[in-house]
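#random but structural
TW: two for the price of one
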Amino acid sequence: MQIVYNSEQFYVIAYPAEEGYEIIDKAAGRGAFFRGDVALRFRDSMRDIVAHDPSPDTVDEFISGFDIALTQPAVYH
């Protein structure tokens, strides 16, 4: 597990062994886990965004596009 992005709004966590990514919306308290092709497209898109405009506002805007998929309650330990 590796935190690859952390803003006031979102966490993005990579799980290399599972080839997946988890997105957590901190304010909403919900998230999603992506694997396979979706995870690969997400990773590639994140790399493109960061390469062109790595500002937190731009990255948060991109991640907020996944809002409809963030349906699992986030439980903090």
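TW: number two ↓
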Amino acid sequence: MYRSQMTKRERECRSRLKSYISNRELVRGTLSVRERVCGKPTCKCTRGEKHVSLFLTRSKDGKIEQLYIPKEKEELVRQWVKNYRDVQALLEKLSSMYWNTVKRKG
């Protein structure tokens, strides 16, 4: 389909999608916070102040993969996950437009 044949919404959506893919990093995964107790008898975690860690998880080839995310990379990785979800939402929007086009023509 040529750009001139696209609706304004379609062109805008494709343009935003292109911008995400060419200018931003993205990663598929879920961020999860874990709290744990280390087991050292004199540690603060034995008094209820658990150790907090952030992990990025995803499923790949039927297996769960996990990565520990250090504090200094937390904001960066959170943005990458958000970018991926934004791309997913744009793709879903485009897909719905085309679905409706096929539905009307059928």
